[in-house]
Amino acid sequence: MRAHLGQIDDALGQTGGPWILGAQFSLADITLGCVLLRLEETGFLGSFPAKGGLGRLAAYYQRLQARPSWKAAIVDVTHPIITQGAEDLRVARAQDREIALMLGD
After folding, report:
1. pTM, full prediction
2. Three-class SS of residue 22?
3. How many domains are contained in the chain?
4. For a Cys-Cys bond, which of 9, 10, 64, 87 suits 57, CB 3.0-4.6 Å?
5. Which residues span the domain enclosing 56?
6. Distance, CA of 19 to CA of 26 (rounded, Å)
7. Tens-binned pLDDT, residue by residue, of the chain (105 aa)
8. Please, which residues have CB within 8 angstroms of residue 17's CB and are 6 or more apart in sequence?
9. CATH number of the domain residue 26 falls in
10. How far apart are the first and last CA of the chain?
11. DSSP class of 51
């Protein structure tokens, strides 16, 4: 996952951003936003930049979160299945030494 996020970080540098395709916000941004959100909810997202780089990706994620549509679709809407799933994954990470080592904990 770290390598994949690095490729996305590089792509953001090549397009000049602020979005995956450059100036145009697209379905690619919505899709990637979902992936980043799930990584954040489980505590995995913070582990990847800590290993170096990914500054463009971090700034990109902040731009996504600043969009009014993010607030309307993500912040203002919660679902118990997602909340429980994210918690289950956080617990698994805390209890599984292999996962913790893989993520640099």
Report:
1. 0.78
2. strand
3. 1
4. 9
5. 2-102
6. 8
7. 888 999 999 999 999 889 999 999 999 999 999 999 988 887 777 776 666 778 899 999 999 999 999 999 888 888 888 888 878 877 887 888 887 777 666
8. 56, 60
9. 1.20.1050
10. 16
11. T
